[in-house]
Specification:
The chain is α+β, with helices and mostly antiparallel strands. The protein is built from eight helices and 19 strands. A six-stranded antiparallel β-barrel has the order 1-2-5-4-3-6. Strands 7, 8, 12, 13 and 14 form a five-stranded antiparallel β-sheet that branches. A five-stranded mixed β-sheet has the order 15-16-17-19-18. The longest helix is centred in the last third of the chain and has 35 residues. The radius of gyration is 33 Å and the shape is elongated.
Length: about 400
Amino acid sequence: MRLYYDDSYLSAFKSRVIDEREDAQGVWVELQDTAFYPESGGQPCDRGTLAGVAVLDVQADGDGRVWHLVSRRVAGDVLGEIDFARRQDHMEQHAGQHIASGAFLEVSGRDTISFHMGQEVSTFDIAGRTPPTAEEIRRAEDRANEIIRENRPISVRWAQADELDSLGLRKPPQVAPPYRIVEVQDFDRSACGGTHPRSTAEVGLVKLYPAEAVHDGFRIRFYAGQRARLDYQRRAAELDRIAARTGVATLESAATVEMRLAELERLRNLATRQRRQLLDEEADRLAASGENVFLAFPDRGPDDLRELAARLATRGVPLAVLTGTKEELGAIVLQRPAGDGPHLGGALKAFTAALGGRGGGNAVQAQGAVPLPAAALLEEAIKRLRSL
């Protein structure tokens, strides 16, 4: 018998081990009666102890038998104790999902397709061809929290197949009768085997977040109960921290950050234009002689080297060999103008491999990295790539 069916608040119970099996995970025991919820319906299993021995997992098999994975063997009469903090969290999340799903159905006619309760955040998927708008999510959240504030009873009853048509279930059951029906008074009625509190007020709070597309609908991330309160506290603390750093009131911090990001983007664009201008001037100066360019820049990275080398090629420099720094390695870039000439990618690949690095590219441009500082790398390149 599954004791949690009738009392989700039962945290300690006495029972007897009636069967045992063993697999790669360890020893599993079956009890005559159990208050441990087995993983199912999107809800994780309960944890706790049997005779002081840790219960690591709880699963139901195809015959409906409930098996408890224990850290070591137990036998005979046992005292089962549920980790009630975990159970209460699951009750809050599961009831929160029922309420939120009922709210979505009421405000926009969207059915809930599936539900998953994670360790940190839970989700439910809703149907529809278009994503729910921010306003739709807000209305569903407001309605869900209105139901919570009204302290509506959450009750459980059993029903047979011939009663289904009269029950007005939000979603038809996927199991054989008899059906366990969980009802939020005058709001939501669903076939469900999960654990729930006695009233909506015990859920405390539901917070919904923007939807993301999934293969058959849209996924809503949500927090309920203590998770929602902790999420609020974390977000409020982060907002206060931003406000303190920007020197404005908390509720002005978002506008201030947006303004400063716009200014940062303006300065970034200005810096990009100035950088390109400096690279053009540098390339003009280096290309003036019309000869090959071999230079080491210990303080410049691969991106900068590539841009300079490309400019040198467009200015007719026959070959540019530039070295710099890439993290803890030496970076090297080779470039020549388009047309007939040596295949730089093949040459650089062989060169870098010989020095314990890697590189490659196409006929006119190549780059790589070698465990040598920029100056030493350039010296090796001049010596080994002389044939180019």
